Amino acid sequence: MIPYENLKILNRPFEEKLKNKFSDFLEKGWYILGNEVAEFEKEFAAYHQEQYAVGVANGLDALILSLKCCGFKSGAQVIVPSNTYIATILAIIHCDLIPVLVEPDARTYNIDPLAIPAAITDRTVAVMVVHLYGQCCNMDPILKLAKIHQLKVIEDCAQAHGAKYKNKLAGTFGDFGAFSFYPTKNLGALGDAGAIICKSEEDQQRLRQLRNYGSEKKYHNGVIGYNSRLDELQAAFLRIKLPHLDEINTHKRKLASIYDRHLNDSFIKPKQEPGYANVYHIYNILHPERDRLKQYLSEHDITTEIHYPVAPHDQPALKDHLKNFGYPVSAHIHQHTLSLPCSFAHTEEQIHYIAGILNKF
Ligand SMILES: *Cc1c(COP(=O)(O)O)cnc(C)c1O
Predict the structure, then answer these.
(1) Alpha carbon of 5 to those of 11, 333, 342, 346: distances in Å?
(2) 87 CB under 6 A from ligand 1?
(3) How far apart are CA 246 and CA 23, in angstroms?
(4) Whose CA is nearest to atom 2 of ligand 1?
(5) Using a 6 Å cutoff on CB, does residue 84 contact ligand 1?
(6) C-alpha 37: how far from its chain's center?
(7) Is the CB of 60 under 6 A from ligand 1?
């Protein structure tokens, strides 16, 4: 039996350190916004060669607080890919802004820069890009458009910790880089956690206020804030795992290269283009008989996932919020995509075995 993911095995190499950290934590008795959060923020910023990182409660909040920090008027429009995880779109809706869906490039699954201009109106205020599956978006043309039209750029980096485009890390291109440390992400906590990378002292201060009831000084509230603090214990755990992020990504890349080399041409594999360093949060293939393939693998005790089974424009929750133009590129991806096991918890042998079974389909 090969599960899609196994968090117990994934975190086993860190077990000793995690246990010791928990003992220290218990000993210290400081649970909210302590030294661990402050140190993790410094280390996470330093990893990105940036000055500012602010820990928040989860990835959705990282997106919401980034938008809130911009102070957009309600009803303004935000461009977002039509094939993202629903969180990206929910963040826009929760800020009383209008999501405007733009189709992805069918080869990369990421927002198609050539399709963005047609979506820009005089009400557009931001582009929210998503570096899906661990591959960065084609950032140069996006940043150029943003500059011309004075749009803020917010990066959803929930699947792209350590991913690079032209040697620059995901999360460092736009005004804000929003991260999730949900346990299955490439850098995963042992619970919910998130962070935002930002570019100015002013934004940093505002984000710190927003995450903590709008207060800079205890019981003095300058803005309408939230309770979205990065948990002290999760920050402590993340400090143990951050130094191993590159090792985790290297392992996932090695597993991906096994699929790349061994899977036959009936499967459409992720595109590798020069200038992109993919971290394979998800190793996805496209197949015309996706559902039958998933069933076949399941009969061989191999668990797979679908990211995602229902496109945002088909979600009942979003029915009143999105203009449903059908979005054929996104619909095609949603109908044919299958995510194969490709975790830090998997071995090269397991991937060779899975590739062999796949080729017999
Ligand atoms: C996981 C994920 C999120 C949300 O992160 P949470 O920490 O679960 O809130 C947002 N966007 C994308 C693309 C994700 O994969």
Answers:
(1) 11, 22, 8, 8
(2) yes
(3) 27
(4) 158
(5) yes
(6) 20
(7) yes
CA of 37 to the centre of ligand 1 (A): 20
Residues of the chain predicted below pLDDT 50: none
CATH number of residue 195's parent domain:
3.40.640.10
Residue 1 lies in a domain: no
Q: How far apart are CA 63 and CA 69, in angstroms?
A: 10
What single letter denotes the amino acid at residue 101? L
Q: Residue 64 sits in which domain range?
A: 7-102+109-243
pLDDT at residue number 218: 86
Structure-token pair, residue 288:
């015309």
Q: Which run of H or of E encompasses 155?
A: strand 152-156
Domains: count for the chain: 2
Phi/psi of residue 95, each to 5°? -90, 10
299-320: pLDDT as tens digits: 999 999 999 999 999 999 999 9
Stated pTM of the model = 0.98
Which DSSP letter does residue 268 get? B
Distance 179 CA to ligand 1 centre (A): 8
Most informative mutation of 82, 180, 226 for ligand 1 (most atoms within 8 A of CB): 180
